[in-house]
Amino acid sequence: MYGHWITLVMVLVAGLGGTSLFALGYLVLAFWMLWQGNNLYTMKDYRKTLSRWNFLLFYTIVVMFFKISLQVVGCVFLSPLNSGAGCVVRQLLSIICVDEQSCKALATLNTKSDNCIVDVKETRIGFDTMALCFLVFQLRILHSWYFQHCMIDFRCEIIQASRGALLINQLIEKEMKEQNVQQQAKFDEIRSRTAAIRKQYEEQQLKGAQSTFQAQTYGQDSVQQPRPLSMIVVDCDDPFPMYDPRRTTADMGVPAKRAGDYYMFNYEPDSDELVAPVESFVPEVTPGAGDFDKLDPAQLLHTAISKDMDLQGTLNAVETAEKIKDEELRMIRAVAASDEKNRDLVVAVLEPVEGHSSQQVQPTIQEPTNVEENDTVTNAVRFGGKIFRSFLDWLSAFLNRRSREHRYVAFVLHKEKTRLMNEMNHELYDEEASLKEVRHQWESRSLHMVSSESDVSRLEEEAHVKWEQKSFFARLLLAVANCITAHTDVISFVIACIVHAKCAGLITLPLPMLVFFWGTLASPRPSKNFWITLISYTEFEIIVKFIFQFGFFPWNSNAEEAASAREYFKPQYVFGVQRVDYFAFWDVALLIALFFHRYMLRRLGLWKDANIMDTFIEASDVNRQATSTTEVDISDIEARELQSTTQGAVANVTTLPDEQRGVISSFIFKLFHPKFRYIRDLYPLMFFLDVFCFFIVVFGFSAFGDGGSGDVLSDLSSNRVPLTFVIMLIVISLMIVVDRGLYLRKAVLAKLIYQLVTVLFLHAYLMFILPAITHKSAYENSVAKFLYVVKCIYFVISAWQIRNGYPQLCIGNLLTHSYGLVNMVLFKIFMLIPFLFELRTAIDWTWTDTSMPILDFFSMENFYSTIYNLKCARTFETSFPAPRGVPKGIIVKYSIGVPLILALILIIWFPLLAFALLNKIGTELPPERVQFSVSFEGYPRVFTMEAQGNEIQPINKMMKEQLRSIISNKNNNVSVSDDSAALLAKSRRAVSYIEEYSSKEIHIVRFRPVSEVFWEISKDSLEALQHLLENGSNFNNETGSIRMNVDFAVQRQRAGSKEPVVHTTVFYVDITPTSPPGAWDGLRKALNVSANEKSEPVVLSNVLPYFLTVPNEGQVKPTTYIHEVFVKSKEDANASFSSLTLALSAHDDTGHSNVWVTQTKAPNSDMTKIMDIFERKKVVYTPDDRGLFYMDTVIFVDRVFPDYILKYAQGGIIAMYIALVLFISRIIRGAVTNQPLDVIISEIPNPDHLLKICLDIYLVREAHDFILEQDLYAKLIFLFRSPSTLIKWTRYKPKQD
């Protein structure tokens, strides 16, 4: 039966395998055959059908013959066809040599041309051969006896051409009635209960007062003199007699929102009927197909964990529990203990609840013994298979719920078709009999399975398909197939949008326009004319695209394409006829989807009379309907559309437009005044798609505008935000607000106008405005095309909402339509996002009719969010119960307790651990430049030098090993009297310190000995310094001194940061006339040096440490661990510092070209050995400085914390404790501990009645009963104010007084 479609798809593939007239013929013939569809097999003359298939087979053979014959031209006589008209002919017929290696000897006759390009794959016959094979096989099927049964099936489909529309109309009418009844029952229940309560209260009031308690204002109190108690009969049962509203006078203003009192709760809460919403009223023809009455995978894992991963016991418990229909009792039985004592306890508890079923369940608790309990591998495989099967069953049930209507119609039609074949077998096999006459006989015999609402229920009970008898894999495949076939229209709409997104040209623009302006808005469903138009235009644009793929068009040449590469409004791209590979892939996919959808419509009786409005027809009207049917041809659609059958119609049906209405007027009238409609709340899906578009714009902004770097994240990190980006975010946010407002106001007409305007603007923006902004054609903008597809899906869902109307009750948040774990987590995330709850509530208050002020509206939403969280928590406890009186298993304790303990310990000691492992987990950040300067306090710097580039080099592994060896051997030969233990400890500390650094983290810095700048000192300052050194005293005639500072600055550049990290330090020495020895006189003489001479070196002992440490944050410090190895005590570590020598070189008498020369000298022989390890370098770049050496310093560079830790570690360990550990501890403490009074709310056992009050408030608000809204809100407030009443209304089994 399906070979017809497979063969024609193969012919289409052969046509798209190349660009030639032969391929074009394939396309035309395939389109012609696809257009006929199953009508090919319902013709009276079957020979015409066979002749059409024979013609297609003959054409395939001819094409193959010509392709092979033209190889003679392509391989031998190709030269005349390389230019001009010959090239056009060559490209039209795809003339090219396939196997050039076989024609090398004929090269002189066959000259190539670069101007006439033909692809070799276009002339091959691989696809033609496959199409030929499929055609031969299809002809064999057409001549078989089996196909005669298929033809009878096709004839039955035509007879049932409008039956599916009638069945769907019946379902819609039935569902609409049930929805109205359920909604009205809610209103009636609330009104009747409120009236009864108020009547009872008024009777109580009249016992001792002439007036009753009536609220006069909403929230403003009026203070009046209360009436004396002697005039009032006090109720002795009232626990608060002083708080009695009967003490007020009639003219006293009483606040409505505080008018709640005990009289509102003078009945048992269990008498409130908690009606669960019905997902669908469509009959379930496959029992159990849409229900999942087993343990889901998460519950299976919970059961296994609660039994300490005893897989054998888990499987036995699950097998027993899944025999129980009640979901809560099923999980209780699953997690129940296995031992005899606790098992008997569970059975005793469940017996009163289960009633008669407990006797059947109790014996099954005995564990089977046919499986080895010690076979762990087998049990693990069985348990894994159970989880896998449970997931597939859950997925099958989920998919079946999406296709319930489709499966019902298919089931009824299948039964009616079977009945038709049995009752009218002779008429169906009679080729001379007209299908119109056969249909008249079928109608007159009343062979329909459903003609009234009672038949729908009867059919549901008589369903013969046993879902559980199929394998789980077969159930999944059947569910997937049903879900796909039930939504072929939506699939076609989405593919049509993808076609336009891929092409982004004017030629495909009518496809989404037809979808959004006609197909998705047609009520109750798109007509046959729409699908014919969409199919016709799809075939047309495929043919046009195919024609423009030929290479002889000038814009298809490579030279023209390269010349216009920078243009973003190229004509071929604007019209969508550019030459690209796989140009019609999605177009053919759309065409196949459309033909498959047409096939499903015909099978389901929805093709011809798609807009029929008939529903249930009484038996007395059958003959009249049959008579009217004989007067109308089967293909006559409009006549049925104009018939108005009112039997069994609901009260709110609007008469269909008459013949005087125009086409557009009739279309719009039926859109806003349908006879029946489904009511579904699709706003959550639309909101999700809008948010998804928001993130597409955020993370793909470079495709929508210029400004900044194109990367939004990097722009935000650099405090640059493009204006276009901000405008787009504001526009999207406003669109979400407008959509929410239309949803709350249920403004269908405004929603339609908003939809049409948005559709037009989106297409104009993406096709014309956006390319002008980004200088990139719409075809090349992949992110914009992805946004377009997502937005088109939004338009499809939005059109469905417009066609069927908004729900009457719009309650709560988008995430609160169910109470599962996922909903609870998402709702908590929603509440944590700043301003999102406030924004949504403000929008709801603005566009919702309510008598509550905005602050009370916020309070009401806060009440609802709290109660919703409680409901989700109790649902989670029900879905994953813990058995009573059973200690927690080892798996639970160790899987929760141990990670929690380790996490807390890690958090407590994280700062210490982070700094201890800094050089292991940190990021290497070598120094880029090191500056060394010497200055006298109060005077300009005498020496400045900066090392960078090659002057900063990491040491090699040999140098590090030699350094470690010298230090470790330094104190090995000391005598006992020298406190060898302390000296050895110093060596070990130094060696351990060195081992913390890799050789790449230890750098040797070499400074040139001559200052890089002249000594810029004024004559006056020089004379003042000379005077100080000459006299040796200060202003107070005391011994003079001068401080010399040695400054170090190490600069490192952090990745991603503009500002470098700079570490500084200062070493100083106070110079006096006596200390250091010779330094004072040496400086005095150096300042008096003559021109073109160099002073004697001034030696300053133990000034500069040879080893320095650069920490991750803070100042540079001497590496004390190494320096103290060479001295006796830590306090004498400076004794191992290098000595610094200064000499002034004067080049003239002016003093402006004086320069200081510095050198370092090891303080002892041990340091000399260490300096030799690092190979002191001699200055060789000028002949005058050959006696000088570079000044060396070894620095140990700490790693820096990663960026995600750096902001907490900048202040050191103490700051990290304050910023991180204490903050986290407050969060954890707040999560695990509560205030004692919080238990009143957080431990409410049964929040169902509280939730019902909230839902009732939403319901009466939608009904515009604002007095009742205020009374229910007052009832809710009083309930939270009265702990005793709250306990009574939230316990599972209220106490009977």
TrEMBL record:
Transmembrane segments: 6-35, 56-81, 490-518, 583-601, 682-703, 723-743, 752-774, 814-837, 896-918, 1208-1228
Stored InterPro entries: Piezo (IPR027272), Piezo_cap_dom (IPR031334), Piezo_THU9_anchor (IPR056770), Piezo_TM25-28 (IPR031805), THU_Piezo (IPR056768)
Gene Ontology CC: one annotated term: plasma membrane
Residues in Piezo transmembrane helical unit domain copies: 486-608
Topology with respect to the bilayer: Multi-pass membrane protein
Protein localization: Cell membrane
Piezo non-specific cation channel cap domain span: 984-1291
GO biological process, one term: regulation of membrane potential
Piezo TM25-28 domain mapped to chain residues: 2-219
All copies of domain Piezo THU9 and anchor, residue ranges: 680-916
MF GO annotations: mechanosensitive monoatomic ion channel activity; monoatomic cation channel activity
Keyword list, A-Z: Cell membrane, Ion channel, Ion transport, Membrane, Transmembrane, Transmembrane helix, Transport
Family: Belongs to the PIEZO (TC 1.A.75) family.
PANTHER family: PIEZO-TYPE MECHANOSENSITIVE ION CHANNEL COMPONENT
Name of the featured protein: Piezo non-specific cation channel R-Ras-binding domain-containing protein
Source species: Panagrolaimus superbus
